[in-house]
Amino acid sequence: MDADAKIRARLEAEILPDLLRPVGQARGLPGWAYAHPDVWALERRTVFARGWLGVAFESDLPRPGDCAPVDYAGHRLLLARQADGTIRAFHNLCPHREMPLLDAPRSECRTIACPWHAWTFGLDGALVATPNIGGVNRHADPDAQPGGLVPLGCGTWLGVVFVDISGQSGKLEDWLAPMRARLAAFDLSLTVEAPGEAVDHVYPANWKQVIEGAVEDYHIPWVHRQVGPQGRYEAVLGERFVGVSSWRDMQTAQRRLPPGPDGAEPEPLPVFPHMPDSGEFEASLILTLLPSPVVAAQIGHVAVSLYAPLDPARTLVRRRFRFLGEAASSARHAAARRRVRDSWQTVTDQDAWVHEAIQQSLPAREAAGFRARFSPFWEGAVHHFQALVAARMLGRDAA
Ligand code: FES
Ligand SMILES: [Fe+2]
Q1: What is the residue extent of each domain of the chain?
Q2: Greatest CA separation for the chain
């Protein structure tokens, strides 16, 4: 039995019967699912190879001619902004003998030359030169069959660059449609990414652990004490996304941000137009498209986070912030934008020690045979997320 088949057999026999019970009686994924190299290898062939993956921000390549390498769960990708403003994606591997083509972002590229034998490609992937392929100063050879870069599926939404590595995931808009429908009350088309505001962090933890921390509010009163009172709350369970929804009135929602850097109250940010002045409404909707990005729609901003697994035990989180219209760039909202960014930085830092402690305890958890149990009220999305990951590893996802 090969390694994939062994992991799948263990999932079927040891894990699924308990995992797929109703949330209050279910038992979670075991420690080995967060650390075993064969699980990581299987995830790379399933979770991170099928479907549309959010791998970069459009703002990473703001101008035509910008190119960037992206490493995502071991996939080496190359993104290139074309003259018409669209972005194309390729494997960051030369079709000659697989040398990585780019090792750092570059601007004003008209072509990309491989550093090994100088095969040269247009930004559309077409092969434009093969210097010396037929001998010194002979740049063609009738017996050789050089080729260009093969484009991967690539598209954008909400400032995120999505890539379809498998080429079998259909249209990006169809893939995103269920999540966009759930977010429809928030008119995200009004939002613009704020330049220069970012929270980037590498958690020393498995990517699943990091996402599980993002899809429950249970820990907030203990780990994020500064984030005010909680209101009506429910898990959101999709086929391709999971998340949490929280209802608050406007006053309570506004109070969740700390004072500005100098203790003064900054000019308030504009809020989404559908939000009422009085009464409770859905003031926070945080959805994770499995496995990336996480979209956190709040009253006056949207935090968009890419979750990029670097290896089984490290996860890079990159956050950017979107605000309504001119509030994304106006000087008078600068303090309010900084306050939003700082509040996310604080939450990000506060989560770090939890993720690290959980990761470090995996061997003990494995030895003790522990399996997580869940609060039905708070952790329906964590449970659902684990079931979705298991289904993808088994090739049984509805997607
Ligand atoms: S490996 Fe790229 S040109 Fe040889
Ligand atoms: Fe947290």
Answers
A1: 53-155, 170-393
A2: 77
Q: Find the ligand nearest to 92 CA.
A: 1
Residue 74 contacts residue 65 (beta carbons within 8 Å) = no
Q: What is the pTM of this model?
A: 0.95
Closest CA to 156 of 246, 60, 258: 60
pLDDT at 398 over 60: no
Q: What is the mean pLDDT of residues 363-392?
A: 94
Give me the pLDDT at residue 259, please: 64
Q: Which amino acids bring their CB within 6 angstroms of ligand 1?
A: 94, 96-97, 99, 114, 116-119
Please state which CATH number belongs to domain 53-155: 2.102.10.10
| 114 CA: nearest ligand 1 atom | 2
Superfamily of domain 170-393: Naphthalene 1,2-dioxygenase Alpha Subunit; Chain A, domain 1 (3.90.380.10)
Tell me: the pLDDT tens digits for 285-309? 999 999 999 999 999 999 999 999 9
What is the position in ligand 1's atom list of the atom closest to the CA of 98? Answer: 1
Q: Which residues contact 231 (CB under 8 A, 6 or more apart)?
A: 246, 247, 248, 249, 252, 280, 283
**Residues by chain with Cβ below 5 Å of ion ligand 2:** 351
